[in-house]
Amino acid sequence: MTAQPKGRLQSAGAVVPLAVLATFLWGTAFPCVKLGYRLFAIESGGTASQMLFAGTRFLLAGALTLAFGAAAGRRAPLPARRNYGGVLLLGLVQTTAQYVFFYVGLANTTGSRGSIIDASAAFIGVILAHFLCRGDRMTRRKALGCAAGFAGVVVLNLGGGLDGAFAFTGEGFMLLAATSSALGAVVSARVAPGNDPMAVTGWQLLAGGGVLFLIGALGGGRIRPTGGAAWLLLFYLAALSAVAFTIWTLLLKYHPVARVSIFNSLIPVFGTLCSGLFLGEEIWNVRNLAALLLVCAGICIVNGAPGPASSVKA
């Protein structure tokens, strides 16, 4: 009974719908995190409270993933013993490091700008895969796609951030978050084979989230929910992480890093649209649209060969 779904996941046609779903969920996280700061009374300079908020989210996400995996398999999902170290490393890179930079950076820039800068993870992933993943080599087409994507990030940052200037703890931290995400994809591609994807996802979220929670708690962070909406938002953030990271781990188990990572470029499309919808940000300006077009062009170029990937639209 398990052979059939595995075959579907290994097919090239599985990449597009699953990657789009995961990136849509991650795109909604940008406005939701910023709304969470309001609903939990977290100030932009409250780094410890931001880490506590992030840690609570990912601990809950890890618990949800493992609980669902246990219900589906009727036993607690565990990675192979030889991969315990790899899962811990994945948690430190893909959850702890990425979201330290993500939560602080997003507090110091807009949701739309943050989501577009975060898209550089796709192109950083393609570059890292060339050096770290056997058989995932850089080609002329991939290089052109990466150049287009990075050009979009450059165009976006020709303008100012929240205070009219590029901020290292804002836009700069979002770029570091993207780098951590890309490196996490490489680590995941090495850890996932031979393991239950839910086990890898759940335990790395618990490990990484636990470190974030400790950083926040030891730093004196506090989260003060202002009502029931705050808890609903926290649960949604945890659930989207559980679903999106599980999908991503599954895709990286069966497909090359570069082919999967490039779909990170869809995150700014969803993130920008959702930030405009839920935060009321001004998204329809020439700079934002030019940046979005360039990063989406990166998807089309990198996946420009005939096949399912060429059907992706912004």
**Beta-strand content bin:** under 5%
Mean pLDDT: 81
> Roughly how many Å apart are the termini?
35 Å
Q: How many structural domains does the protein architecture include? A: 1
Please give the share of residues in helix: over 70%
Low-pLDDT stretches: 1-5, 305-314
| Strand count | 0
* Helix vs. strand class: mainly alpha
User: What sequence of helices (H) and strands (E) makes up the elements?
Assistant: HHHHHHHHHHHHH
Overall body shape: globular
Q: Which assembly state applies to the chains in this document? A: single chain
- Major sheet: none
Number of helices: 13
Query: How many whole angstroms does the radius of gyration measure?
Result: 18 Å
How would you describe this structure to a colleague?
This protein is mainly α and 314 residues long. The chain has one domain (7-311). 73% of the residues lie in helices and 0% in strands. It has helices at 3-10, 15-39, 47-73, 84-107, 111-118, 120-132, 140-156, 168-191, 197-218, 228-254, 257-261, 267-279, 286-302. Mean pLDDT is 81; it is low at 1-5 and 305-314. Belongs to the EamA transporter family. It is found in: Cell membrane. InterPro entries: AA-Vitamin_Transporters, EamA_dom, EmrE-like.
